[in-house]
Inverse folding.
């Protein structure tokens, strides 16, 4: 069998006794029936999700669904597709999973490729580490691909974009634009994920993916209303969403199919996986509903359902909240004037438009922080936010003095890991950011956020490519280990469980 891409494993659903995993393949169109076997469990179904590119198909996208029972001991699941063999690891029944987290898998500008040596160095490191210390879940926190090249490489969109016509924002998203963008997105995914280092990891660790702006295009949802609502911007978004559904969520491109772990009732792509041992995973979709007018990251309707799901999670455990953009990070608003004279300012200005601390998002951020702190205190559970986006490794803590007798439940941790491929901002930009990192962020009365010095030199930001491991131990602690390029040792934070008043 000629496999063009894959298998790409995805975690579909969990319950107390089962892991439901799928494997995605891209094969030549009208391939013969596929034969697949598992060493344990059932191949529930094999279905065709789509044919790509949509406008002129040459590839079929196939999803194979596996139902695998958990045992009293960890297990290695071998799976064979035709004459090809792979394997993935599952935790024991009731055991918390080991998790790898990555984000920013590409380049916002092709010129940045010269700033790195081995493009897939961190992916190689992740896969080698996995072979000696298996990971059960691969969380991918956004920018799984970078569509930025569409403005130059999609000819019809390039010509529209440089026309400077007064009525350009009233132009239609033409059939030619759609067809050319279709081919561009198809080739982008196939190329971005085809590297042996990336495909090795994706075929060996079931993933949970959530999009961010570069999976659509840079800064999506934060542009002025006329641009955001224009037929061409909406047309680009709609096609990028179809590719996100098919290749990242492993769903049909259109229709009523929801992800098996979609939060009940949500109309965006919020996901929840619980329980997995002592860990629950909550994945926020911060892109589908992001818009400038009314300004929002997520609709009130979906926030309400999000908080309902959060408050129904088990007590005495850990909640990992994936927020593509850090909730606790530097105050970029104070740096706006400086950014105008800095190299690399474009990617930093993108952060300004998008980040949680922008004044337009202040209300949503305050409500999120209050809900996380209340959940932690009432449910006696630790909440940790996992984020990427900003192209450095960092950590922060949100603290509340409102309930002085509630111990550790007054804290929410923020872990930032990025990028697995994208390089850090230029040194002068990092210097300016670092010099402002010790400022206390007052979120609300009695609630603050502080960056933590995690770098080996006592600094707050690590400006090398990295990925993050979340490794539970037998004391219900989570060891957060950053695997940093060129570093001789890990950078580590320990996330303590309920009852321990340390971070």
């Amino acid at each position: 069998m000629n496999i063009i891409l894959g298998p790409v494993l995805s975690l579909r659903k969990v319950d107390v006794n089962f892991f439901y995993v799928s494997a995605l393949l891209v094969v030549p169109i009208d391939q013969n029936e596929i034969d697949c076997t598992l060493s344990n469990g059932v191949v529930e179904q094999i279905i065709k999700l789509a044919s790509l590119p949509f406008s002129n198909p040459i590839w079929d996208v196939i999803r194979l669904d596996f139902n695998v029972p958990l045992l009293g001991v960890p297990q290695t699941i071998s799976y064979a597709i035709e004459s090809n063999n792979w394997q993935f690891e599952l935790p024991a029944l009731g055991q918390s999973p080991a998790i790898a987290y990555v984000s920013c898998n590409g380049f916002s500008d092709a010129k940045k490729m010269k700033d790195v040596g081995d493009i897939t160095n961190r992916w190689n490191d992740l896969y080698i580490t996995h072979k000696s210390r298996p990971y059960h879940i691969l969380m991918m926190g956004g920018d799984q691909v970078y569509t930025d090249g569409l403005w130059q490489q999609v000819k019809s969109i390039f010509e529209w974009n440089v026309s400077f016509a007064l009525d350009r924002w009233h132009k239609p998203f033409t059939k030619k634009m759609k067809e050319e963008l279709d081919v561009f997105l198809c080739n982008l995914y196939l190329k971005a994920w085809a590297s042996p280092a990336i495909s090795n990891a994706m075929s060996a660790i079931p993933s949970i993916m959530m999009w961010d702006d570069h999976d659509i295009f840079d800064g999506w949802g934060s542009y002025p209303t006329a641009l955001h609502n224009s037929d061409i911007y909406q047309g680009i978004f709609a096609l990028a969403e179809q590719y996100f559904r098919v290749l990242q969520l492993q769903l049909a491109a259109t229709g009523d199919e929801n992800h098996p772990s979609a939060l009940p009732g949500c109309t965006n792509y919020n996901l929840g996986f619980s329980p997995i041992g002592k860990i629950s995973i909550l994945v926020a979709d911060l892109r589908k509903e992001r818009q400038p007018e009314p300004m929002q990251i997520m609709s009130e309707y979906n926030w309400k359902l999000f908080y309902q799901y959060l408050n129904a999670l088990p007590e005495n455990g850990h909640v990992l909240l994936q927020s593509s953009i850090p909730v606790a990070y530097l105050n970029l608003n104070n740096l706006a004037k400086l950014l105008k004279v800095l190299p690399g300012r474009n990617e930093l200005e993108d952060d300004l438009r998008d980040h949680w601390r922008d004044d337009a998002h202040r209300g949503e951020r305050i409500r999120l922080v209050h809900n996380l702190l209340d959940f932690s205190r009432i449910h006696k559970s630790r909440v940790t936010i996992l984020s990427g986006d900003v192209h450095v490794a960092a950590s922060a803590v949100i603290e509340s003095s409102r309930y002085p007798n509630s111990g550790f439940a007054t804290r929410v941790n923020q872990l930032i890991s990025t990028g697995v491929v994208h390089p850090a901002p230029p040194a002068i930009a990092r210097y300016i950011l670092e010099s402002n990192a010790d400022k206390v962020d007052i979120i609300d009365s009695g609630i603050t956020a502080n960056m933590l010095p995690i770098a080996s030199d006592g600094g707050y930001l690590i400006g090398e490519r990295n990925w993050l491991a979340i490794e539970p131990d037998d004391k219900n602690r989570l060891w957060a280990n950053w695997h940093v390029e060129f570093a001789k040792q890990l950078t580590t934070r320990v996330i303590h469980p309920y009852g321990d008043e340390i971070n």
Q: What stands out?
A: The mean pLDDT is 93. The two ends are 51 Å apart (CA to CA).
